[in-house]
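Example record used in the benchmark description.
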Amino acid sequence: MLTIWVVKDYLTRLNASYNDTSNNHSMFTGLNLHRMQRLHHLYNRFGFGLSPEEWMNFHSQSLDHHIYRLFAQAKKGQALETTKIDLTNILNRMNPEFKASLLKEKRIELALINIQWIGRMVHKNEPALLERMCLFWHGHFACRIKDHKLARSYLNTIREHGLGQFGTLVKAIAREPSMIRYLNNQQNRKQSPNENFARELLELFTIGKGAYTEKDVAEAARAFTGWTSTSDGKFYFRSAWHDHGQKSFMGQIGNWNGDDIIDIILSQSQTAHFIGQKIYQYFVDAKGNPEHEAELAQVLLASRYDIEKTMLHLAQRDWFYDKSIMYKRIKSPVDLIVGLFKTLDIQSHESFIIIYLQKLLGQTLFNPPNVAGWPGDIQWIDNATLMSRLNLAQILMLGSPLPDRAKDDLSVSKRKRSPTKLKATVNLKPLIELGKASSPEESIKVLSEYLLPGVSIPQSLLFRYHKGETPQETVLISALRLMSMPDYQMC
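Model output (structure tokens):
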């Protein structure tokens, strides 16, 4: 647990001002607790939570207002561009062993795309819903990418179509050089069809197991022959490699190409059920609910697979805000990292440490374990990640030592130690401002309602363990303790 002298030392360096607490600054007086929880739930599932500053500004507005805001912002999302970063300065400040391993793997440019994406998830002016949809589709169309140009192209394709028509998104992903290479469609030629992409298109990306035959896989593979890419990472159709003959796919016969195959798949109602199920189990409850999944499937079918309309329907359902599913979803590593960065208002850091934290917790963007993506849910927690997750707030807030080795350690040699500390500039003024109250008990209550809104914690227990000698100390000790509780791993 964070000691009082550590908090005092931090407060001295922060040089934060704290006004007279004779006035009650609690924003929650008279606020409907259920409405507050619904707002938290919306931003947790359709975004990455709220910073203290956002919460202070947003709490009084209606749920409908925030639903509209999320969808309106999503329309303003921008593509990721090539960024000019002073790599020399970054590398010179980096742990020598960490730097050597990154240079050896030639992954620096890819890591920068990863960091840029995380930055958009954190930043309050970026469209939270769009970033959430990008993360969802990245897990759905799981693709392991090693080239930074291909990673940027893949992510921008998801950004462009992630809230559009599902059919358009699937066709665009089928043309992405990263997916073509990952699933070996470069080797798919009429003389020797390669079925890898066709199989995963059916099994994982569109209609699901049991809704197709092995003959369908073989015929779909023929339709995607010649779909390849150039050496500089552009889609290229090689007509000479394509099988122009008739194909029999899902009971339909014709001179089908890849787009035709996708259209036939989308005409099957089972595809809508499969995608509705994936959306429900990611955004609502991993255990599933056949009735609600079928409802989403009907919206998909009626809207011709319009993802935006489907997500808007979900956001407006009362059952989406049922207490039985609130705060029951285990945060993914990316959720946890981004949420803490928002809460602690981290201003600057050694950029590549973000990559290490992802590896430490078991989810590195652009590096899923396989084409099925990250298993998620309870699989996020194991003996290798539990203590790191519980201690992450302290690591970020105080620069505590990092664990010696990451779970998915591709950047640090197994014979060498990891970076020893995370050097970051943390701005806790918004959190302190949020926690201002007329008494320590009220301050702790406000913080617990912000950080753990779905958890009932006896005030006597909180006060016993979190009271500091000054109001600032009470806020910081309480916040760190709350973020270190197992309940904070849920959203």
